User: Fold these one by one.
Assistant:
Number 1:
Amino acid sequence: MNFEIEKVYLLFLIPIILMVMYLISKKIKLKDKGISFININRFIIITILILAMCNISISVKTKDSSTIFLLDLSHSMSNYKGEIKEFVKSAIEASPSNNKIGIVTFGENQEIEQFLTYSKSFNDIQTSPIGNTTNIEEAIKFSLSMFKDSDYKRVVLITDGKENQGDILETSAYFKDNQIDFQVYKVDSEQVEDVYIEDIDILDKVAIGEEFSVTVNIKSNIKTKSRISVYSGREKKSEKEIDIEKGDNTFLFKDIQHKGGFKPYKVVIEPENDGISYNNEYTTYTNIVSKPEILVIQGKIGEGKGLEENLKTIGSSYTMINPSTAPRSINELIEYKGIFLCNTHVDDLPKGFLDNVESYVKDYGGAIITTGGDNSYALGGYKNSVFEEILPVSSDKKGKNEIPEISLTLVLDRSSSMLSSDQGSFSKISLAKEAAIRSLDNLRETDNIGVVTFNTEYSWAVPMQKLSNKDTVSDKINSIIAEGGTSIYSALNEAYNKQKESSAKIKHIILLTDGQDGMGENEYKALINDIKKDKMTLSTVSIGTDSNNQLLEWLSNNAGGRYYHSDIYTDVPRIFANEILISTGEYLINEEFTPKVSAHHDILNNVIDEGKFPHLFGYVGTSIKNTAIEIMTSHMDEPVLAAWQYGIGRIVAFTSDVNGQWSKDLLAFEKTPQLFSNIISWTMIDYDNSGELSITQEGSIAKVQYETNNHEDNKTVKGAYTFEGNTTSEFELKQVSPGKYEGNVPMSELGFYSFNITEELQGKIIASQLGGFAYQYSPEYKFQEQSNSLLALVEDTEGKIINSVEDIYEIKSN
């Protein structure tokens, strides 16, 4: 047992007071025993008060004690992890046998490194809490829950004290109420030379075409030079060299935006001298206010000319582009209220567009309208793309119009000339193999495939078989090697003989070559007649400048197929893929018909008078999906106009064209502007957007708060967010009070996030609210002033600052 007296000098008052009382009693000669007893009691009370004022503490050994080491592993402590480990290791080795040890690591969150135990085994720190912020308050509260009531309780906090989340002083009552011994081992972290972007000032909203300022605030503890770059989305707006002074620095940039929507701004600095690079990038955003605009993507020039004329007539604001310049991110997509795709092949669209178009509709309420032609739906590669998922029609023909069994033979030139790559970086044999493999995507497992290759002789790379294992067939095609001369006839004749054995209703041969074998039309006449007689078709593809184009065209024309010549070798895979579909005669329907109304729908309001609707002269064959609305059908009972709701957005598929080839009568029809106006009104719906959306950063969490005037209890509020226009994720918001909802979204990547919040009641979307959020680097990477809160807590809880492990294990009793 040890005694500790903080104010020893007060003890001298006891004999002084005793002497004074003695002298007084002697002077007045008090003999009454009752009065003497009262004086003795007075002396005892005064003595007790003096002892209390001395702040005497008694340290005793108790039966059990528990010590929790609270380790700060935030980013500002990253260089001191080794020092922390060695201190804890030494403290555990010095721990009394009756003391249990627990270890909790923390930063933004807390993790238990070791539960309370008498064991002294400890080698290294294994846990890794999120280090973005330092929240000592929550770490202390978390650790206190580990104690048992019967134990003597001790908390040893190891930190630099740079708290930037929470308030450590809020824990004072916990220590006092639970009689917890609080100790702090203070780590003095060093400040490195550093330059960082403190923040960016920008207006929340800006009118389209209006000039505005982007103000960049930079802090530095050194004088240096730097390059500074300003980006808006993918576009670099400015770059220049700057001088940075020690202290606060401000740099001003001007900009104008010509398209609406949320516009992220990212500033990057590259200082010559800098200790930390993580804080050299900062993102913010502004909302460019504009009228809703429509985007028209036309596969080739002129594909959207009929649509453009009608958009002008109805006064819609639109932008017309080619596929290669299509938006590549969610943030770019949501600049537009809706998007028309006019006879656009999927291969011509950017990957970013294809990756995000589903979320654009489903999560952000965008509209998609597709139109037909020889590069759309099945012929546009939609079958194996996102469009097969989101459109109300399927590129595969099903039901009564399902395509009969197909038997396909590919006859591929593998002569040595196919090794060349006259244009581009790909050899002709590589593209031939890619084309053959791509063609498999348009075949079913029930269809037949065979691949004959030839040089001076022919051989079967893939014997005729059912396409039951696409990977195996692909591997065999990939193994084809080019060598030798060219002999086409024998390979083509072999393909015919094998096809003759097939019972498939559709038998088709595709011949690809870059050369010639010296034979003319007369030598092929008998073979071509046999092909026609046995109800087969032959299409031919020539690549390069050395092939006998005249012969190949004659072969295909006389065998019911098509001839293709390509100097752009990358077109060959698309030719093969489309050729299979065209060969069936079931996808490009070049026939005149009058569309039939299958369902009364808002899209047809004030369009059809007395059942009159103009003729169409063709369309692309598709099949309607189960839950879609089939508004108009063809004479073959296939979709001509279909629609459906997809997530919170809407999609319409029109399977005829808008360039006038199939739709010349429709484009001349006086009610066609009304038709397109109805399509736009139905797909590009205006949801209630009066809700208030607030998104704030709390550590590595985006705290989403949404308030609405609609207080219906049985509605759901959901959210979607997309990082930098790429991957979209969903989350739910919980009601915290009438009309108020909250949700927490974990963040990982620094940068801009698009958000959309929707209200759903009885299965219907009733409101939608767009928002933006910029996730910044951790405040751990900013200059942090030393806080007095930690020392104030130590004083308030009668704790102590320790300098070594020897200071830890004294048990104090007040």
Number 2:
Amino acid sequence: MAGRKVYLYTLSFLLLLTFPRVLIAQQLSPISSGQELSTEGKAWVEETLASMSLKQQVAQLIIQWLPGSYTSTNSSEFKEWADWIKYDQIGGIYLSIGLPHSYAAKINELQALSKVPLLVTSDFENGGPGMRINHSYALPTLLSQGGGTSFPSTMAFGAIGDANIVREFARITATEAKALGVNLNFSPVLDVNNNPENPVINTRSFGENPSEVARLGQAYIEGAQRGGLLVTAKHFPGHGDTDIDSHIGLPVIHSGLDQLRNLELIPFQRAINAGVDAVMTAHIAMSDDESISTPATLSPRLMGELLREEMGFDGLLVTDALTMGALTNDYETGELAILAIEAGNDVLLMPSDIGRTIEAVQAAVKTGRITPGRIESSVRRILETKARIGLHEDKMVDLNAVDEIVGRQEHLDFAALTAERSLTLLRDRDQVIPINSDKTPNVFSLTYAREEHLVAGREFDVGLRSKVRKLVTRRVGPNTSVQEYKTLLATASNSDLVLVNIFLPPVSGLGDIGVSEELRSFIAAQNGSTPMMVTSFGNPYLLQELSDSPGYLLAWGDHEVSQTAVVRGLFGDIGLTGKLPISIPPFYSLGDGLERRGVNQDASFAEIHPEEVGMSRDGLRALDQAIVQSIADGATPGVALAIARKGKLVRMRGYGNLDWDDSSAEVKPKSIYDLASLTKVIATTTAVMLLIDKGHLNLDDPVMNYLSWWAREGSSKSEVTIGQLLLHRAGLPPFRTFYKEMEGEAAYKDAISDLALDYEPGSATVYSDIGLMTLAFVVEKIAGYPFEDFVKHNIWDKLGMRDTSFNPPPDLIHRVAPTEIDTVFRHIHVHGEVHDENAYALGGVAGHAGLFSTVFDLTLFGQMLLNGGWMDGCLSEGMIEGAICAPGISENVQIVSERLADVFTGRFDDSASRALGWDTPSGRSSAGDYFTSSAFGHTGYTGTSIWLDPELEMFVVLLTNRVNPTRENQKHVALRRSVHDLAALAIQDATVVKRSN
């Protein structure tokens, strides 16, 4: 697609399957808090604990903050950190903002100083790795210094609602964090953001529905553990229903334990059940706790009785930062540490004075206030955590691997996908989206941000400049004067469209989260005179202050990835499908969100919610899991899948990788596969249908009418018809190894001419490559020009199938899945050229094999056939929202007549399972047991298939390269059946029964 990679990356299961693709040894093994320690690990824990003095034990409880930026090892700052580690012997460090290499190098330098390996922590909680290791800019040019992969906020994933995407997000975060040397991520945030006035959680949460927060939180834990990273559920027992920022003061929640159990605790219990490694406390108080002034962090009732005993958590219990105002306003450093330990905490995060903390806790042990056993139990947990991830064996980072892992292109592509999928359109009274550049030549872009947000709107405006003829950009902020706004009003009135882009943080600790009165007046003053769209790149609740805005779009993040996504969403390059994971009273409720389809030539289809077409989300997840497992079992390196029902897409995903190699690209919907025998139906059969429709060919015509060379004089082959070739009843053998002796079209025609029949035409059904080879020659003869040009012009171009071709060009090789390691004929790993030897000898173009395509393109083809031979153009009038359509096509297109489509796709008679060119299900069909008898489809030797079921109103495209590395691999057979069975059984609005024939 012109000018841009397609970001329909997908997901979920790059994840599981292929941890061989991770480049650091520590990342090869998934972990969880329930993982049994090795004998060596247990011995190390006990030996280390026994060797520690009381002071060393207390120091192990401390994790201290330090910046991730570059620091010389002989600076006074570094020497202070070195003292913490060498002399105080603290247990870990908590790194803040930096760049990848400075992060990793600093971790190595500090680990080298430690007697006991440091537990290295950070909080990639709200935006993934980019939250801490990206978004540094060189002044004065604001040149980006690059870094980790940046994602939109956590709430963006609530707007998407797909646990698979969350798993992959977490896996990528884990992969990059581990590459830097981070062991424990203080994420996910499992607070239920059920208070719109919450000044501290907001978009850090998945949303306000506790069940959804729990579901997505569990997915995050699973993905992170698969990536080899420890994770933390926070902030226990729930910080969502508060209206004070605990960085400043002590919030109080006015609900009892019963309400907590029915709301806030639901995500935490599910996380514990899923094996979360750590829990972080919340500095909040409960009105019915021991005292309204006792923070939960210091409450034995909440940390001990509730979390440990009732909920069954036995992992690391970590305080939130002990420097926060909710605690320091009322407690002295030493006493604070003692109370935290008494409450049951294992880790003291960021005490304000390390020395004072150690002294105070030591004194409490010596006076009997805290028992030695209490300290030992926490130290043992900490040491066991370190041993579980192998720190006792290898605590250093491979600095050479950082560049290979952090900010990888496939990670960036996936982040772009998440930003695009999360966009949530709530209001569009002026019908702005999608913007038509030709009809909207003059655009005014107004960015509202604080002065210190230097790059707010910059990437957004860059994207706009590539879309419109004239762009005027201005920037305002909280201090912009009334007079300046008057000037801006004049500019707006002379524009075709006004875009207001608000970059305000969703958290009060970062400044004013509301807009100025002047901006509100500016928006209200438009009063419909100029179309307008307001986009919030931060706080989603701004609409409460902007009730006069005619348009409101939520981007869920302010980084470049979100700015680019918004431009694409505004102009229809992508569809808009996000749904509110919160309510915005009094305007919008949980689950609200307008949908807009992508309409431009670069648009890709977005998956809809399966419930919209009567399918079960859980059923499709089971299908996803089956694919993942099959890849793990060695069926194929990867899978590209599309499932559509009732004209809409419920799955278009890639799973795994193009090859088994560590550096191989992940499978995407635009990954290109060798279709093998799908060529017979996607190209040859459809071409025959076209010629019959146009009156140039008949099923009963003898082949000899068109190919005089096809049979020698007096041969019984002279009576073979076009229909018999399509039905595989022509008397031909299944195949011949012509390629061993010849190459080129002329030689093949001679060989086919000399070929004797194996049986009387029409008397049996024997699947034959040679019949479809012949039909391609027939098409070429009638058309008067090459077969590949005929099908391209008459089928693929009309449907917008831009990646379907014979002999894919070299510049697409990176998207092509390799097939077999050929040790007999070509002696190469076949990649980018047809696997089938006869098709190869024919120059890569043949009627039986040779075609390459993607699930994206085959979705267009499949929908065309289910429609009865026609397809809507995406740019045509009256398009149904969310319907599959031909991208870049402005009118409806008819490929074949509905009458002929019915004739060709129904079983020809009861004597065999064949239709004309197509197969129909019977016995242990590749279509499984639940596709109906009205279904039709085809398979390809490389592991490809397409099955369509008019009765179920569904089709499934499944592309694999199962012959990689050898054709002896037959594990794809079970996979095919399983995929089709699970797809059919996911249907909920119709009765699905086992097929009788």
Number 3:
Amino acid sequence: MSPANKHLYQLSSQEALYKLETTENGLTDQESASRLKRYGYNRLSSGPKLSALGIFIDQFKNLLIIILLIALTISIVIDHFNDALIIGLAVVTNTVFGFIQEYKAHQAFASLKRIIKYQAKVKRDGKINFIDSENLVFGDIVILERGDRVLADGRLIKTNDLKINESTLTGESIPVNKNSASIVADVSLAETNNMAWSGTSVVDGTGEFAVAFTGIETEIGKIAESLSTIKTDASPLQKKIQGFTRWLALIIIIISVVVLITGLWAGRPFDEMFLTAIAVAVSALPEGLAVGVTVILAIGMRRILKRKALVRRLLAAETLGATTVICTDKTGTLTKGKMQVDKIMPWALLDDSQADNSAEAKSDLNKILEIAALCNNAYYNPENQGAEFEQSIHGSPTEKALLMAALEAGLNLSELKRAYLKIDENPFRSEKRFMATLHLIGSEKQILIKGAPEKLIPYCERAYFTGKTVALSLSDRELLINQITDLTSQGFRLLLVGYKIAGSSDHLPDAEEQILGGMIFVGLIGLRDPIRKTVKKTLKLTRRAGIDTLMITGDHPLTAKAIAIEIGLIKDSGQVLTGLEMNRLTDPELLAAIYPIAGASDFNANRNFSGVKVFARVGPQDKLRLVRILKDRGEIVAMTGDGVNDAPALVKADIGVALGSGTDVARDNADVVLLHDNFSVLVKAIQEGRVIFANIQKLILYLLSGSFSEIVLILGGLLLTSFNYFAHLPLPLTAAQILWINLITDSFPSFVLTFEPRDPDIMSQPPKSSTAPILNSTMKFLILLISSTTGLMALGIYLFFWLKTDLQLARTMAFAALGLNSLIYVFSVRSLNQSIWKTKLFGNRWLVAGIAGGLLFQLMALYLPPLQRFLQLVSLNWIQWLIIIGESLIVVGLIETVKWFYAKKISAVTSLKQAI
């Protein structure tokens, strides 16, 4: 346990350092290693370990197993030991299968949660290092910057306009202004303005704190301890599936009761009809559905992870596939996220009247780079031996690019910082769009400034030229604005750098006008963020999939438009809306700008995306508004973001997508984290989300088709007994035979359907509406078609052989027909949009193996004497097999015919929409 106590806030910062046995320069490496060994890692409790026994016991809590156990007990009581053995085997098969898959799923989800690791910027031996957060120990000095997550509890010793969001602890969403002054009175946690608490996030400013508590000793650690035993709620999709299963179970129980009563009315023995009714109930329940959905989601999450995206919430894996609109930032997703300085323009190169002095102007480049390197929070660690040059620089992409340009130009950063001693800072904020630092140069103080040109030009009174300054006239400013417009339209992101002589104060003024007024223009820096090679191809894919893409950026509108044209998002005539222009529009007007068609407020009105695609100079509230109005229209919105200010929009969106290189706050509020900051990774994740939903549909279709076909067969046989000619017709199948088909033969292909790869044309289909049911009308029709056709044809075969031969052969033919049917038509339900002949018939090796396994057990039942006697079956000859195979192919032909008509309908609708 740390030697600190919870009253550190009452000590001065120096007293707190003494209490924590540390200094402002941090611990030595030796001391930190010793404390880590003594006090342990900075980790929160992960809750009670997963209990394999608990998962196994849970398998006996579902309705199917309870029904089976009741049937097992009754079978033993009435001496039907063969049926009891089959039912017992079914219980073991289901419980073991369910246990293995649920345990694997839990393990998969647990491993996914361990993917993201946080790093802390710490001082050790006076040097700045980045370490894994779990290696933090009390006494470490941690440096905080805007967007950081606080990774331990500690006492603040330095602050600079530091604001921390402590809503995770206090519930108060307003950021807390922090300082390092001691607090004399006893105060609550929410009032400890000189403390930093683990799990909170830095909204603005910078600071340093000395770690006091780690792991479960932190305030959030104590909360985690108390919450670790709370069971996670099922996702809405799981609840929907569970509700569907309960409804289906009720229907099947009613059918089973009807079967029992009908049989008894026809004069059948009670024990025979009771077991038959139980068998019908068991056969009709899609017992593999709940486990199958879990496995599909787990496999889908793993596939998405292989595509370099981490799904943090179970439901998001499936919801991804329903995405209709992607609201994406430009930097890092559409572009490489690695800014490069491509152009440096001092005043002499901007002013045609100074063209003859361009040689002297080259000396001004150093002045521009000096300001860019000093008014900068990026950090260069020259001691990262073996690391690439770029990897030795830490900071935001823009500031890294500026610092790299300065270093590549040969500037000595250490000497420069000694000559320009920084004594105060006004950090960059998105709403004010500039950064200023106060420096002591000998006996003079200067304010160095960088920021958005349109923000700073009004404050520039003079220009720096070869060591002296010249006055800026109105025409000079117009020239400057024209140059900025021209460079911006070429896709450059521009920064203006300048400086001014400061007064005697050691602090920057609070008022913006006092910081910027009278500044001296030094030059422009043009940065480019190269376009990712895959973006153009990926955008074509999203259009084909019916997914709209909106680019939302804080960049200048001309820069945003140039990038959008380059990637093919818009044409030269495409419109760009700025945040200010958005604010002048009402919600209906903004929607009409995005979707300039009749019925723009209705998702189903039209999927023709011909409106505004690019939004520039937008703020957090603008993003939030866009998400809101799109969702109100019925869109499923995926929003990307990487900053603190993106968090509200990420939370509001159906799918919040954070860049892996983004801030902790963005990642913590996202559903999906892109481990590679790439637009194509997001689209690939959406593609896998569609695969998840499609596989769930296929699984339900397959399970219900097989289940209902057995109901049709049994009910058909019972109804025939009402006719005198068939008054003594035995049941087409025994309870043991039904259970064998449903729980042994069919279980193999139903399980391996969860591994089904994506359809080649899955991204050529329109997105599903958020209100669409799991099964569409075509699938419901297919279930009815398959079950009725299969059941009635099996009944016909049974009747023919019962009339011509004997009961045992007739039941064997019906048994073989049902079993083989389900093993063959599974090839057709693999793809509901493509013909069986256009799919790779053996593309899913797991499915082939599953069918082979099911066929093997079916043949064992037919040809192994012990199983023959057990199930009351006989061997079949090749003519009888030809009849069964022919009947199975007829079923496949009917399925393919329905699919063909469905594909033609979809093709016609798609062509019509593309023509609109």
